[in-house]
Amino acid sequence: MPVLTALLAIVYGVAGYFLFLVPKLQPLMKGGEYDFTSIQAQLADDENYAQKMKDTVVAFAKIGEEQSLRVGNIMPYEADIPGLFVQLDEIARANKLLLMSVDASVDEKSMSPLGRKSIRISVNVTGGNYEQFKLYLADMERSMRLFDVQTLGFQPDSSSFSLVLRGYFIDRKALLAPPAPTKK
Length: 184
Fold this sequence. Notes:
Helix content is about 50%, strand content about 25%. It starts with a helix and ends in an 8-residue tail after the last helix. The mean pLDDT is about 80. The protein folds into two domains: about 60 residues; about 100 residues, Alpha-Beta Plaits, CATH 3.30.70.60. By secondary structure, the protein is α+β, with helices and mostly antiparallel strands.
């Protein structure tokens, strides 16, 4: 009889383990509801991103203030369309041309992974000859801000010229946004 009692106790213990304890442990096991491996992987990715941001801030702090301003003039952290108008007008006046119109719009579809966006700029100038217009283009080429000339137009007997340019800037929001989570 004691052997039968011991055997029943073992059977009840094994049955209790599989009926009561295993269902409670199942969510904690790999692939279960409370499996934290995917959360730990995402946390590791976020920590790597945070470390890269800290390294970038340290590297940026090493750059002198004058060089930081120069980089900001070349590729500003915002579209600065009013600043573009002023810059294009100053270049036109320096070459004895009159800025007739400027139309600028941010191209929202073109963004590089590092946050670079472009601005489409249409410019019409008048009041000079072809040589003055060439000097205007040369001054734009020497300007601090980056411009790519897309198209230019002029009439041989006219004193008006048109340009379509592409300017660039860094979208601060894209720089500060964390990367999209990776699928595992």
